[in-house]
Amino acid sequence: MKDSAPQTVYLADYAAPGWLVDSVHLTFRLDPEATRVVSRIAFRPNPEGTQDRFYLDGENLKLIGATIDGQPVTPEITATGLTCPVPDGPFVWEADVEIAPAANTALDGLYMSGGMYCTQCEAEGFRKITYYPDRPDVMGVFSVRIEGDMPVLLSNGNPVASGDGWAEWHDPWPKPAYLFALVAGDLVAHSDLFTTTEGRDVALNIWVRPGDLDKCAFGMTALKASMVWDEQVYGRAYDLDLFNIVAVDDFNMGAMENKGLNIFNSSCVLAKSDTSTDADFERIEAIIAHEYFHNWTGNRITCRDWFQLCLKEGLTVFRDQTFTGDLRGHAVKRIDDALTLRARQFREDAGPLAHPVRPASFVEINNFYTATVYEKGAELVGMLKRLVGDDGYRAALTLYFDRHDGQAATIEDWLQCFTDATGRDLTQFALWYAQAGTPQITVTDDFVDGTYHLTLAQMTPPTPGQPDKQPLHIPVAVGLLAPDGSEVVPTRMLELTQAQQTYTFAGLAARPIPSVLRDFSAPVILNHTQSAADRGVLLAHDSDPFNRWEAGRILARDVLLAAVRDGKAPDPAYLDGLRATLTDDQLHPAFRARILALPSEQDVADALVRAGETPDPDRIHSARRQVRQAIATALDAQMDAVFATMQVPGPYDPRAEDAGRRTLGNTVLSYLTLLDAGHRAAAQYEGADNMTQQIAALGCLLDIGAGQQELAAFRAQWQGDRLVMDKWFGLQIARSDPAETVTRAESLTRDPAFDWKNPNRFRSVFGALAGHMAGFHRQDGAGYDLLADWLIKLDPLNPQTTARMVTAFDAMARYDATRQELMRAALTRIARTPNLSRDTTEMVARILG
Ligand code: 0A1
Ligand code: ZN
């Protein structure tokens, strides 16, 4: 067996598969150490194929034997696959391989989690199960037989037959191998039924370990809501008689859309009021919807190759965002999505890991399941919808489903549907998929004789490998307010296509206050100098809720910047604006909570970097605390009143309205705790009958250096619950004083409950460490060293999770020379680790540049 060095794969090198698959029969004889996988695959030459050598992917497989049309063959085997001479026409390939699921700690392919067998095949895990053309443009009809000593044996599609220790499954829909799934274990189901608009009766199951059965009801409700929504909004009904979801404890990502057999990280499906927060409920609902929506956008229409990943992910995220907005309110959802985009995707775009929504090359595809592909990908769908309008979008999507159902499609196919359905030329828009970096739009204006000129100038900064950028086609939603806050020009969708454009608004009585980029109409950064007074008017009156929030956000950011730069206390006018919002009962509590929550330390650092300054994490941390203290002091009485009115009586309900009230209550609690030595928080902790209230109170106490007793009580109460214990680990790091963050994380790694091989537990500690800006960037580099030590330890077991967590170092270049040096040293130490995985090697190399 010869080893091959990691290769870069290029979009430009795409070649159609030489052979297609008609049918696949798989037999699994399950055994932890030696599972046998017997495959029988009917191949036929692809008339459009451009490969002339028969090649099957395969990794870490022990080939016991292979035949072609029944005749034994001896393939030439490498570390990544095999080749073999084949007949001219169609033929049947059979192989018998042995794999060891218990030894599979990478959680990719067939592996074991808590005694159950499960699979993860996206992106390239199927090749760790058997030899196969493991690429999404090869789609086959799968039949599966599972033999194993487990009460529940599941695979994709519909059940065919079963008996003691075996089960057979058939999936009638041709699919790529990445959607294959198998689960075997001692599981119980929470079951329900759903009848589609087409009259199909679908059995629904959420499969869990016996102790988790009381955490399934919410997920089931979310699943049914998703099924209804996709029928009503996209006209898409479910297409099998069975839909299974399985919860597993060891999973690298959130969840996976395997056809008819979705597999979920248990943290993304199990929910119950005393163990899950409002945020958990909302996230679980969205992820269940996301995976379900993939049945049409991902499974029925899949991707031609992995460069097209955003075709399914951007669209499916856009769909799940719309779903959540429909269920829970669009304004707050848009704010939350913009916050996530800025925190994760803008950060990615601004650093060494920047890449286009459709990358042009990769070494390890698992490294490209990124905020750019997912969240920016969703923004591109949103912009298309803005450009063609609601009716145009509906027509384009209908055409897309009609034209490409059953196919493996590309971004070109997708855009062509918009052009054909609406007549719009999207040639320039297509650049969004190829050009990395966050565009910046600079806004200037003038007002002469009743005519207002608004000038927008766009610029996208260079990113790795893309020094020169072209102007993009950007929808910029703009409205104009009169000085008294009334709207004089309602929202108009300006289309910015050139480097600079001026738009004219005539017949105005007075100089208007512009509200630019309403509803965050494009994923861009706005450079717009506006007076605090104008922002105050927008905060109080803008008819666009997003920009109302945004105005408050920018005022808050400027207050924080002044505190960081000059130790300045908040401007009284800002405090007045905040007070008015806090006490405005016309506004939704959730919306008020968003306005009251200050920009994060990370946001402040971003703003400093954009102003050409070097952020000092300690200084930002203490300045933000000082501003919070000043706000608490100034708004004490109003906050006290709001806190009282936001208490939600009666039994816990995760619905948005109650959750919004709790969010506002807990936001003001976090301020009030700064003044009352934790009295209210301690009382709330004591009386809490749900996790939202319990953990919010605990967080407030930890914030002021109290809460150690509650932390111990929390542990005693929840030590039997893995998901709640993840919160226990994470919270005390996230809410620690920066001087103690690293030592806290370090001591938690010595806790007997720190099961570092479980990705959720590992992330609960190290995700929290990396997310604590001032704690992680401790000046002596102890945070970097601790993380590097553990990533080096995790890499041989789980390359995917290691590579994802290395991104904690991606903002290296923005810090001072000392910190940069220390980060570089930590990364270099990781890079020099013998036998470092391909995943981590690629990420470290990209960060080091
Ligand atoms: N397609 C899934 C995400 C996913 C991707 C890769 C995985 O393993 C490497 C697992 C899940 C989704 O978008 O939900
Ligand atoms: Zn997805």
Automatic annotation (TrEMBL):
Belongs to the peptidase M1 family. It is an enzyme of class 3 (hydrolase). Its cofactor is Zn(2+). It comes from Loktanella gaetbuli. Pfam families: DUF3458 (PF11940), DUF3458_C (PF17432), Peptidase_M1 (PF01433), Peptidase_M1_N (PF17900). Residues 437-528 form the Peptidase M1 alanyl aminopeptidase Ig-like fold domain. InterPro entries: Aminopeptidase_N-like_N, Aminopeptidase_N-like_N_sf, PepN_Ig-like_sf, Peptidase_M1, Peptidase_M1_dom, Peptidase_M1_pepN, Peptidase_M1_pepN_C, Peptidase_M1_pepN_C_sf. NCBIfam families: pepN_proteo (TIGR02414). Residues 220-429 form the Peptidase M1 membrane alanine aminopeptidase domain. It comes from the Bacteria. Keywords: Aminopeptidase, Hydrolase, Metal-binding, Metalloprotease, Protease, Zinc. Residues 533-848 form the Peptidase M1 alanyl aminopeptidase C-terminal domain. It catalyses: Release of an N-terminal amino acid, Xaa-|-Yaa- from a peptide, amide or arylamide. Xaa is preferably Ala, but may be most amino acids including Pro (slow action). When a terminal hydrophobic residue is followed by a prolyl residue, the two may be released as an intact Xaa-Pro dipeptide. The gene is pepN. This is Aminopeptidase N. Its EC number is 3.4.11.2. One of its GO terms (molecular function) is alanyl aminopeptidase activity. Residues 116-179 form the Aminopeptidase N-like N-terminal domain. The lineage of its organism: Bacteria, Pseudomonadati, Pseudomonadota, Alphaproteobacteria, Rhodobacterales.
